[in-house]
Amino acid sequence: MKTLEHIPLNGELPSPKGVALAILELCRKDDATIAEVARIAQTDPALASRLIRQANSAAHGGGRPVASVTEAIMRLGMGTVRNLALGFSLVDQYQNGPCGQFDYQGFWSHSLLMGLAMQKFSNMTGAGASEELFACGLLAQVGRLSLATVYPVEYGRLLDGQDGVARNLVALEQEHLQTDHNELTAALLGEWGIPGALIEPIYHHEEPEHSGFSTGSRPYQLVHLFYLARRVADLGLAGENERNACTAELLLLGGRIGLDAEQLGATVDDLVQQWRTWGELLRVPASALPSFAHMSAAHAMRDEKSDGAAALRVLLVDDDPTTRCMMEGVLSGALGHAVVCANNGREALALAVETQPQIVVTDWMMPGMDGLDLARALRATEWGQTMYLIMLTGHENEDEVSEAFEAGVDDFLVKPVNVRTLRARLRAARHYVQLLEAWERDRAQLKQFAAELAISNRRLAHAAMTDLLTNLPNRRSGMNALAKAWAASSRFEQPLSVMMLDIDHFKRINDSHGHAVGDTVLRDVAQAIQQSARKDDSMCRMGGEEFLVICPNTDLKAAVQAAERLRRMVERLRIQAGETEIQTSVSIGVATREVGMTETDALVNAADRALYRAKQAGRNRSCVVVQGQMRCFP
Ligand SMILES: Nc1nc2c(ncn2[C@@H]2O[C@H](COP(=O)(O)OP(=O)(O)OP(=O)(O)O)[C@@H](O)[C@H]2O)c(=O)[nH]1
């Protein structure tokens, strides 16, 4: 880490003045006494009252309230008093400055909340002396103030261009100013005598995952606490629309130090209270915020609205209560999904049957049934095929990841889960679920279309082969039936007969009673043909008032009997058409397939000739022509 001499600077850095500077210098001496520090501090009434207030703060623990600066210094310790004096002095001196684009008041407002949060969280976790960490939180971004002081014009230009992402700002600072605010913060804190054990975590606090501190070590714990404190401060200054992203992330971060959604909410609400009180004392702005619970709930509602989709059903599976609690807080509290939780794979399987979740987020290592077995078990069921499975893993190992994908997992997340990543992955999952549901809807619709099409095709086919007036098969259909009967008769060497039937003097009926009555007569005669026909017979309307009856496996004698039965039946018909009762008759030509007939037309023509003879013979007759000889019945 660089010291101030290694950083190219061409202006005056922020530095404490007056009483604070004197305390700082005094504390550099090994033999400095509390009495000496107290004597100097008392000369600045504002500093004295702030020190007493800090010594009496809830964070410092119970006991009799202190009333004097000496007691305050005894309670706080000289190191902490020195840091507090430094911080308060800078706040007082740098309420405004030469850089037009730098928000000095906003900077101190943010720093104050960060300091308070650092004090609170360190107290809750036992990470270190909370007052000392208050001052460290307060000064954790002092490098930014320094850049605004040393390079007011260049830094202002740079702030204009940056998009608010800390990492981008660091890169821009390095590019244009050959240093960055974290580097400068660390160098200044070193200059002011803050211990290196605190400077290191402060230097890395914007990107704790890149700090390289070993998991569980004190610097690791501190760097994450600084990050958490910073995100609380970001929430304090965030606009209404940005608060949502902050609350979601805070829920996750809070989970890591064992705070559930309710506890975190209470902590943040309390911090905001303290921030407002201290804000008045230090004359920095600290605005009132809605309660944390309200901000999280508003987020859930907005998330749903902006995504235009309802909450998803999520099954969360983890045997670790802390992870489960924090993930549930984010999934349900911040992202607004309907979450059910299970302790292990077996419990999850039972819950999955019951709740049919759209998304399953499962830990890998669990007693009993682990995440992989759960994925396999779900994929083995029909209903589990379409669920979106997200696996939580401790680390990203290529073999393990491919094993997870083979077991049917759709995506994986490396723990500790970052809220931005979780949100992005859930967006992908939601997209998948929506596509799937749209596909299911389309499939159901297509099924319905196909069924309707089949019905309509059947109707069309029926219409194409049916005579619409009589509902009998039409000529085309009749010719198909005759071809089949002809083929069967050839195959089984069976006789085949046909009758050609024509209504007598039908024109007269039309002429005397009108076409509508003629139609009724056609329908009734068609019905009579159907009724008199045998099971294997088929018939059709050839056109006009002419019908064909096909009689498979029927010889001439049987065909003539059938024709006579039909003729008599029509003769007996009394057709009612309105007021009019019509009596009619038919002439029938009968023919049987004979040796030498090579095609169906020959048989139809023979029946046609016989019909002609029947008409000639006086109508209402059945006639048959066999080898040139005609016989008529009756
Ligand atoms: N109402 C009605 N009449 C039809 C239909 N199709 C044909 N016709 C009539 O049927 C009549 C057939 O008359 P013709 O072929 O002269 O024979 P006919 O009067 O039955 O006399 P014969 O066959 O010699 O006994 C014509 O007047 C056609 O207009 C129909 O669908 N409805």
From TrEMBL:
Coiled-coil parts of chain: 556-583
Domain Response regulatory: 313-430
Modified residue annotations for 4-aspartylphosphate: D363
Span of domain GGDEF: 494-627
A Pfam short name: Response_reg
Domain of life, source organism: Bacteria
Reaction equation(s) it catalyzes: 2 GTP = 3',3'-c-di-GMP + 2 diphosphate
SMART domains: GGDEF (SM00267), REC (SM00448)
Ranges of residues in domain HDOD: 13-208
Entry keyword set: Coiled coil, Phosphoprotein
EC code: 2.7.7.65
GO CC term, one of those recorded: plasma membrane
Protein name as annotated: diguanylate cyclase
